[in-house]
Design brief:
This protein is of the alpha+beta class. The chain folds into two domains: 4-126, 2-Layer Sandwich (Ribosomal Protein S5, domain 2); 129-285, 2-Layer Sandwich (lpxc deacetylase, domain 1), CATH 3.30.1700.10. The chain is 21% helix and 29% strand. It is built from six helices and 19 strands. The strands form six sheets. The protein has a five-stranded mixed beta sheet with strand order 2-3-8-4-5, covered by helices on one side. Strands 11-12-18-13-14 form a five-stranded mixed beta sheet, covered by helices on one side. The chain has a three-stranded mixed beta sheet with strand order 17-10-19, with no helix packed on it. Strand 13 and strand 14 (168-175) form a beta hairpin. Helix 1 (78-87) crosses helix 2 (109-118), helix 1 (78-87) packs across helix 5 (234-247) and helix 5 packs parallel to helix 6. 41% of the residues are buried. The structure holds zinc ion. The site of zinc ion has 5 residues, from helix 1 and helix 5. Zinc ion (ZN) binds at residues 78-79, 190, 238, 242.
Amino acid sequence: MHRYQKTISHRLQISGKGLHSGETMDAVLSPLPIGSGIWFQRTDNPGARPVRASWENVTDTRLATTIGLADESVGTLEHLLAALYGLGISNLMIEVSGPEVPILDGSASPWASLLKKAGIATLQAPRSFYKVTRPFTVADDDGCKSLTVEPADRFSVDCEIDFPGYVGQQRRTFAFSQSGFVSEIAPARTFCMEKDVEEMKRNGKALGGGLDNAVVFGENGRVLNPEGLRFKDECVRHKILDFLGDLSLAQFPVIGRFTAVRTGHTMNQRFLQALLRAPGVLATVNPMAPSKAGGFSFPSLTPAHVLPPM
Ligand SMILES: [Zn+2]
């Protein structure tokens, strides 16, 4: 794992569609100092306060992960969070001009590329992390979905999914490395069935969704995207990506061997909350009290370093 705290070297700005609202959002990412953590700030509502990317601030896990309340809330942030987790960026301000982070291509690759172009700055402070001291499991009532973590010296996740009728069963293990994240996990796109997209659009969701930001399956599991899949098991890779993004809301990386069976954002969050509240399961290494809002100065809205189109 990344041993030192990191941020980015230059501010960067990107615009893109929100998956559910369909509106175009601007996102500006700015460096923050040691101990700050990851923060989101809505810029379209002058009264909105910054919201820390923390499990304690999660307010919705249907379809995507959302933090904050009402006009402060920011959703669909898990792919950006996964990219930050994969690259070890632990201090960052993300200003968003609407209720969602741009979906870009539905994976974490564009975020990882943008962050690398902005430059990754290593800060002179060790990263805090959690070590797992004993096995811990959360399962749903019928045991169909479950998440387990066991003590281990490095992070790994063994993920299994089952979507009968289109994706079917897939299973993959990912042992963390930054290069492995960038090449094996980050490019995997979100996925859905065509009939579910139509249903969501009727309900005012996924209005920005399409073949340019999701893998869409038609009848009998046929992939409707003309370019096809990026990996044969792209779907389980994306579930690992989502899991990394959701797990990053623990604020410190959790070092352990995870087993994820048919999980999604709701189960990920249930597990995380139970894990962080369970006595004696996690030991904090390099403890460092995260600063609260106001413990550092938030960046002003000066023009950002604008990157050329990708
Ligand atoms: Zn996702």
